[in-house]
Amino acid sequence: MLKIANNLPNQGQPGCQALPVGAVGRCGVAIAQALLLLSLLATVGCQGHARVRIISTNLSRVSLLEANTSVLTLDSDRCVHWIDQAGRLNIGLSIQQGSILGRAHSRELFISFVLDKPTAGVGRDYRANRDTLRGYYREGPKAYRFRSLYGAVAIENRSNQQLAGAFRIRLSLRASQWLGSWSRSLPFLIFGTFQATPDRADRGRTIRQKTEVEGWTREVELLVPAPPLEQEQPTITAPIVSSQPTFLKRPATASQPEKP
């Protein structure tokens, strides 16, 4: 049973001492801050999360620069999944980190996965192809676009319609250049893990659109089957038979003058 401290006689016991003035107010502020923190954590959890790592796999050329040999690690605070009209499992993740110094010091990442139909079981392994992954990464004024070549994606069904996954995929990456052109294809490897939540606000579809612009549309989307044509049945007629076979006919020639 709970007891109110003010109703107990003050006999020097620590538990019975009166609270100082303002303590209740400070406790209320602390409780409010704790509730705000919990709500923020809940919001982040509802949007999913991911950790992405990208490293160059160029075996023909390497430099001593740290940026050329290190792994780029990016943490995403948004990762969602949905089913498209073709019944395929889609996953989208994004990172948008601004800076008070402006766009030149900000960076953003958008990655979209298009997999085969989802499974109702515990999970499924998918083989990645050229249409599986599309990505866009910008750091300051420099931008990069990449697509999958081959690899693997593993998906596990979790509670509350959440999906846990891991991936390891070879990439073809191109860097932006002057006048809107792109560099030659560079070999990279991308790998990581994610936990995706259901996309209830169409944010994942927006992520996918950002990864497919500027000519990076998935090839499977371009292969739209045309409706079957109604072919007319040919009319069968009897062949015309000549009275004289063709190979017996001699070509007409001009009459030659008689020799004396």
Short summary:
16% of the residues lie in helices and 35% in strands. By secondary structure, the chain is α+β, with helices and mostly antiparallel strands. The longest helix has 24 residues, at 23-46.
The residue-averaged pLDDT reads 75
Please estimate the helix content. 10-25%
Q: From N to C, what is the helix and strand string?
A: HEHEEEEEEEEEHH
Instruction: Please give the number of β-strands.
Output: 10
Could you tell me the strand content as a percent range? 35-45%
Explain what the structure shows.
The chain is 16% helix and 35% strand. It is an alpha+beta fold. It has a domain at 48-221. The radius of gyration is 35 Å and the shape is globular.
Notable traits:
260 residues, alpha+beta, seven-stranded mixed barrel, 4 helices
Describe the protein's topology.
Elements: H1 23-46, E1 49-56, H2 66-69, E2 72-76, E3 78-83, E4 89-97, E5 107-114, E6 123-128, E7 133-139, E8 142-157, E9 163-175, E10 186-198, H3 203-212, H4 219-222
Parallel strand pairs: 3-10
Antiparallel strand pairs: 1-2, 1-10, 3-4, 4-5, 5-7, 6-8, 7-8, 8-9, 9-10
